[in-house]
Every structure is written in C-alpha cells, then in structure tokens.
Amino acid sequence: MSARFEEIDWRPTPLGDISLRRRRDPATGDDVYEVKLGDEFLMSSLFTAGEIALTELGLGELSGDGLDVAVGGLGLGYTAKAALDDPRVNSLIVVDALGEVIDWHRRGLVPLGAGLASDPRCRLVHGDFFAMTADAVGLDPEAPGRRFDAVLLDVDHSPRHVLHPSHAALYTAAGLRALAERLKPEGVFALWSNDPPDDAFSAVLAGVFSGVRAQVVDFVNPLQGGTSANTVYVVRR
After folding, report:
1. Coil, helix or strand for 141?
2. Structural domain of residue 199, as residue ranges?
C-alpha cells in the first residue's frame, strides 16, 4: 500500500513552480496523481473524461487508416494514450513546453509514462506548441512544414483563461489560420476547454474552419459530488 501522500517531484519552470504529487483516495484506496503549477491545480488522474473525449471526438471525425496526429500538452498522458489506443493512428507527436513533464513520463513517474515513452509510434517533443504553430517549421522539428490528420490541444484552461499571455494569439482568427496550415485537407482540430461552450469563440472558429461543434462532456465529480462538465470544440479544415 502506498503512503497517503507523496510529493514525487518539484521543480521551478518559466511558467512557475511545478509539482507532481500522489495521494491515496480515502474512499477507494486508489492512488491519485495530481499536477500543480504554483498554487493552481492543473490536472488530476481523478478527472480524465475530458482529455479522453478530446481524442475520441477529434479522431471520430476522421475516416481511413494511417493517421498522423499531433497533441499539444502532455500532462498525465490521457489524451495521448487515447490516441495510441486507436489502431488507425500511425504516428503521434506530443508537444509540451515543460521538459520536466516529459521527464516524468520517460522516468515512469506517472502511470501512463512508460507506455507512452516506449511506444514506437509516439514521439515526445519539448517545445512551445503555440510558438511552433505560428513558425514556418511547424510542430515537427524533424520534418519542417509537416501536416497532420488531427491536431488535439489541451493546454490552457480555456480560450479565455490561458496559462501564459503568449498563448492568447492562437485563439484569434490569425492564430487559428496558422494552426489550420498544420492540418492536411479535411484535417481536424479539437480543443479541450474547462469553460462552458463560448459562442463568441465558436464564431471565431467558424470564420476559419467548417463544421464547428462544441460538445459538452459530463463526468462524475467525486470531490464535489454530482457531475461536472468540460467542453470539446471540434472543427475541420
């Protein structure tokens, strides 16, 4: 049986101090992994429905095999793992600005880490997804200008609540047009948000992409009781 609480890692980063913690859930006895940035909780293994739905809804819009997928934001790995669980996925690039988070996976400090790091289809890339999206090189440093069947993004709390001011440009028409250039024709962009559907942001998406959908994802919240919800936006180039 694990200790009731353990801080597995803590490090300073350009975005603030980041920590990885494990605690035992008193109700179930299961280990819960949590990531904090400063005093703010970024993610928890208790709440993964939205991250998994991001992949399932995004890839669900695509047909055919041999899919090339890019994910912005590694976190605890649930979005990436869901992509690798889809047998149609041929390759996966996961971009994260925090080398510390990538290191947790490569060292097997998080439950999904060893599997992601060892899967030959998956490459973990240390970089700024937002800057890379706007740059001519794009999301794959080894293949400048490469395009993907799907780009899945789970970094900011929402388009209105970003982790860093530099991220805000992506959620404008110009930023989304740059992102569209990272997609193959008919490729899909899907975005996770912790906020309810935002009609103003959906309108911005509609100016760049087609088939805009804001899907509410409900999930059980054992901490607060009842259910909570995320939003997944899905659009097509």
Report:
1. coil
2. 48-236
